[in-house]
């Protein structure tokens, strides 16, 4: 996805990116409760990854390692 060439606003792109990541993480059995599309930073789309429990992060790390 090329955020620079999209007609969407930077805020909308950030929100959509966060939604797509949340869906992908859910497939891995993980959830980052504070994941959200943030306000643009220097005019570019931005995603707030937020916080997560240590259990969720360990599960995500394990899932990534199994597929790397």
Automatic annotation (TrEMBL):
Superkingdom of this protein's organism = Bacteria
Specify the protein name: Uncharacterized protein
């Amino acid at each position: 996805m090329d955020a620079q060439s999209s007609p969407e606003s930077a805020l909308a792109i950030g929100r959509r990116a966060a939604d797509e990541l949340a869906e992908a993480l859910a497939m891995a059995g993980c959830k980052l409760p504070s994941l959200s599309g943030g306000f643009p930073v220097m005019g570019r789309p931005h995603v707030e990854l937020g916080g997560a429990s240590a259990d969720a992060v360990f599960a995500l790390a394990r899932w990534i390692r199994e597929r790397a």
